[in-house]
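The data layer described in this paper is built around a simple, fixed record for each protein. Such a record has a labelled line for the sequence and another for the backbone structure tokens. For reference, a complete record is included directly beneath this paragraph.
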Amino acid sequence: MNKHFLSRVATGVTKSVLTNVVLALVVVAVPAFSQGRGGGGPKPPEGPTPRTADGKPDFSGLWERPYTPDMSAFGRNQSPDPSLPDDPAPLPNPNARPKKLLPYTALGKKQWDAYDPANGDYTGSCMPFGLTRSVNSPDPLQIMQNPKYVGFLWEQNTWFHLARINGTHPKNLTPTWFGDTIAKWDGDTLVIDTIGFNGRTRLDTIGHPNSAQMHVTERYTRTDLGHIAYEMTIDDPVTYTKPWKNIRTFTLRPDWEIMEYSCEENNKDFFEGHIKGTQNPNAPGGSK
């Protein structure tokens, strides 16, 4: 997928049209993406869940994740929160499953309604995606693990993030794009807990809002050698009236290697002024 083309798309259409265009591009882009990774790859490896020397499930490996541009919609290997009501809006495809209505607060709904990618999206300026939007991206994820840390290496922009196993959050956090992350074991499930966000990101490509008060809980369960059952829960009382989640399946890709990815390199749309400078996407009324 050409990231510069997506940037041009994002600066000239409304979010509803952008969603349809992005989803269409994903369908077209998947074969090309797969060809670059070995023609679609082999069948996922089979076998029992691997374990580390201390007996814990081992999540190490390079993982293919379902691209999730809209956390309220169904997609390949991912689904929105089944407890949420269906969105009554007309569907572009009558055979598609209806999206879910997210439980916005009044401020959250205002921010969602005000978001327009034609006014610029922070990712077009190569600013950090943030935690949730990085997890939602289509590129591979390398996981590295030892008894003290779990490391997440996203191919997207060569970003990384660490979770401290059995750690605690500092009392005085400095807000960041990816937040402060700790982890603990719940049986064979690794529970990732993140707070301390800066409130300058969007949850996904379509632009669902969040605030600096967001609390993200992720649950990783390695069900067998080739798969991870993944669940993300968004708890943000500023933007949503109650927590809600998204469920996915990750697939191990031993035939892939993570590659360097530079958004800044040759970003002509930004340097030639086609993309507006970064702004706070969740400011009241969509202001800069």
